[in-house]
Amino acid sequence: MIFGLIAVLLALVTVGTAILYGRLSLKYETWKQIHWFNFIVVPIIFAHSLLLGTELNSQPSLRIFWYVLGVLFVRLAGAILWDRIRIKRHLLQVTDVVQETPDTWSLHFKSGIPDHKPGQFLLLSLLHNAAGQDRTRSPFLPAPPAATFPFQ
User: Fold this and answer.
1) Are 49 and 56 in contact (CB under 8 A)?
2) How far apart are CA 113 and CA 122, in angstroms?
């Protein structure tokens, strides 16, 4: 009973922060940390419902559906975990910053972005001080150097 209550409360917190993200004025990092709890919450919900759920025990088709959802969750969690293991953190050295418009800047890096595909968005984490304590995460669209564009 207690595991089910904890799971429901944590699920409500993650769903509530997703729905009220703009109104709560949470930082992106805080919002993302809250949502990592889903990797704990979902297995608790599955275990609780499979061990104690009366509906699942009385309806075989519902139980099969629940197992399919469980397999999909394990597959998704495995893919996310694999990506987190596979992705290496790369420190890129900025060689030049060019202001293109009042709210757009181009960053030029010393070396290329590893495993970069044109048109792929990346999440850039900018350090604001030498200790690396203050960060801003911004999505950006990397582009190859101008000489590699075929349509100019």
Assistant:
1) yes
2) 10
Of 56, 86, 54, residue with least CA distance to 70: 56
Residue type, 149: F
Cα 78 to Cα 73, 75, 113: the distances in Å are: 8, 5, 25
Same domain, 80 and 114: no
Q: In 3-state terms, what secondary structure has residue 22?
A: helix
Which DSSP symbol is given to 86?
A: H
CA-wise closest residue to 146 among 103, 88, 100, 93: 100
Global pTM reads 0.55
Q: What total number of domains does the chain contain?
A: 2
Tell me, yes or no, whether 77 and 100 share the same domain.
Answer: no
pLDDT in tens, 44-80: 888 888 887 777 778 888 889 989 999 999 999 998 8
pLDDT of res. 134: 54
N-to-C CA span, the chain: 65
Cβ density class 24-60: b for 16+ within 10 Å, e for less: eeeeeeeeeebeeebeebbebbbebbeeebeebeeee
